[in-house]
Amino acid sequence: MAPYSLLVTRLQKALGVRQYHVASVLCQRAKVAMSHFEPNEYIHYDLLEKNINIVRKRLNRPLTLSEKIVYGHLDDPAGQEIERGKSYLRLRPDRVAMQDATAQMAMLQFISSGLPKVAVPSTIHCDHLIEAQLGGEKDLRRAKDINQEVYNFLATAGAKYGVGFWKPGSGIIHQIILENYAYPGVLLIGTDSHTPNGGGLGGICIGVGGADAVDVMAGIPWELKCPKVIGVKLTGSLSGWTSPKDVILKVAGILTVKGGTGAIMEYHGPGVDSISCTGMATICNMGAEIGATTSVFPYNHRMKKYLSKTGRADIANLADEFKDHLVPDPGCHYDQLIEVNLSELKPHINGPFTPDLAHPVAEVGKVAEKEGWPLDIRVGLIGSCTNSSYEDMGRSAAVAKQALAHGLKCKSQFTITPGSEQIRATIERDGYAQILRDLGGIVLANACGPCIGQWDRKDIKKGEKNTIVTSYNRNFTGRNDANPETHAFVTSPEIVTALAIAGTLKFNPETDYLTGTDGKKFKLEAPDADELPKAEFDPGQDTYQHPPKDSSGQHVDVSPTSQRLQLLEPFDKWDGKDLEDLQILIKVKGKCTTDHISAAGPWLKFRGHLDNISNNLLIGAINIENGKANSVRNAVTQEFGPVPDTARYYKKHGIRWVVIGDENYGEGSSREHAALEPRHLGARAIITKSFARIHETNLKKQGLLPLTFADPADYNKIHPVDKLTIQGLKDFTPGKPLKCIIKHPNGTQETILLNHTFNETQIEWFRAGSALNRMKELQQ
Fold this sequence. Notes:
Blueprint: H1 4-15, E1 33-35, E2 38-42, H2 45-59, H3 65-71, E3 88-91, E4 95-99, H4 100-113, E5 122-125, H5 136-146, H6 148-161, E6 164-166, H7 173-180, E7 187-190, E8 204-207, H8 210-217, E9 222-225, E10 228-235, H9 244-255, E11 263-268, H10 277-286, E12 294-296, H11 301-309, H12 313-321, E13 336-341, E14 348-350, E15 358-360, H13 361-371, E16 377-383, H14 390-405, E17 413-417, H15 421-429, H16 432-438, E18 441-443, E19 466-470, E20 486-490, H17 493-502, E21 514-515, E22 521-522, E23 544-545, E24 579-587, H18 594-597, H19 610-613, E25 622-623, E26 628-629, E27 632-633, E28 640-641, H20 643-652, E29 657-660, H21 673-680, E30 683-688, H22 693-701, E31 705-709, E32 723-727, E33 738-743, E34 749-755, H23 760-768, H24 771-779
Parallel strand pairs: 4-5, 4-7, 5-6, 7-8, 10-11, 10-13, 11-12, 16-17, 16-19, 17-18, 19-20, 24-29, 29-30, 30-31
Antiparallel strand pairs: 1-2, 3-9, 6-23, 14-15, 21-22, 24-32, 25-26, 27-28, 31-34, 32-33, 33-34
Helix pairs in contact: 4-6, 4-8, 9-10, 11-12, 14-16, 14-17, 23-24
């Protein structure tokens, strides 16, 4: 057998792997490190400029900012086919970031690849496994104890394979990226759907599944369907109670949860300069809720100010030299254009149960009364990766100070989640944290917490109808507390704070009065706060672990009896035949997010153990046959039972199955477990009206067939008791529909067409059984 080094070289050549990371190419004008933590990895603006010039000459037209950054990272700018919404681009991202819940599976897959080190700068961030219960310090200690095995695996795997490790308590991945790694013009991929947060610093930051991260860490060109570009022109300026959050709440109401699918949201116009850098990050972060590939703002003085305050003035100075490549060309074309006048924009609150149900704050009380939504607010929660900046905390504290001056505290329970250790330490030093505590708030750990369902909520019972308001980004049914009757609304931190003081959705801080303890009425004034601290940020505790230069003696242990971690076994290859007589596991009715497919909350502890986490497969999806969640008919026994149990029965008896889904199937989180679990339990295809981008890619990576009805009305032709045969796989080619024969129990049959978006590379993944299997084939 050839020596390992030779196998790696062959793999690199077969997959087009670069021998040196592009960031190592020296800029002719300056040599600036990408971050303080990687002093020998440099920003490659010269290469970006070179590639942009090649593409501009080819296309012979002005370019959007999105196009400059994306096309500037092409593996082959001279030969790459470029057509928005059609061609698949082969890209060279600058870096990879992984949060701890998704990093487990990503690192397990990287270990399976057999490669010795990551090819690009990569980091792991421990933010998802800390449950909000008693308060920051106590919850962090508890999380370290409960998750010791997982944290040790991630720390040692990071050390072994050259990945930086941010320890639990360091903060939320997206805030850490903004503070340390994002910069104008970067192309970054992250294993979390809110990775676009980095667009607030002028980068193209895209959420992906773990298998995509493995490709990039292996040095393989990353594939992305050439995105369309939706322009959002901002005019006027923000003022009063209106905040950056209201921009994306308004846009979500316009585009809905799937209106941005396959597109990058590019904000531009004179109104941009009235928004802080962290405010731009808020807007980009929540762009995930409209299905956008990512969102981005042009480089400006607000970004330069933030870079300087976070110790990266050298990057800001370099960006100034290349600024023409970090803003859109005059006269560039957008596939769609939306205009928002910030001077006319009013504070918004979106929900419940979906982030695109937009209401002006002034009107939500009346709507709630009409719809029968609970008016009393049980809990107000501020923070999260979307809204936990210094400015956000300052504006909330400004509201709190006014209430305290009149002797008031929150009528609702109130929690505060700092975005990072740096934010926590700085708001403690500057008094914001104490003001919020005095109002009745509890400061939670620097982590995701209730935003992702890591909340040990005690004030209600499951099934109790109630309302909460948050500054989070996502409010799907049961997401925050696993209670399907919790009506969750998302808004800005300052509006959350005002509503928590009033205790009701009927309160409009722009017009309504509160009554102080002295009996006098008063109105809250619009909050004002510094976007950045006057003094330097307080970094707080050092929570970063550098990967060692020599990791040859580093061991990564996974116990065969572990209930938290499990080494991966390869999925079976395609047998070369059409898929005959597939059983329908479930026909899903309505919205089916990745939370419905693979729930978070208490299930997060199994994210590194595929078999154990598969016990949550589709437990939140509604079965069209009986209108219930986690109750499907076993086609053999005719008994109804839990979805995972039925899937395991089929797998044990060699019965292959499919899922039938509705619109925008798999929206929400980037979690690839929503693709790994059905593959593990015997699925062969997922057939829907449409898919969310990340989930569709994740399914392909794991050797599944994500297919869509050529005629969406054909969804109604399929019944849970039918069997399906998918034909045309022997001649599986890009753009050619597959044939599906629906076999009804009465003996009749119908034939429909199923579309797909597979390219040649992705077809090879299917044939090999998964993208990882295909990588290993090429390695051999």
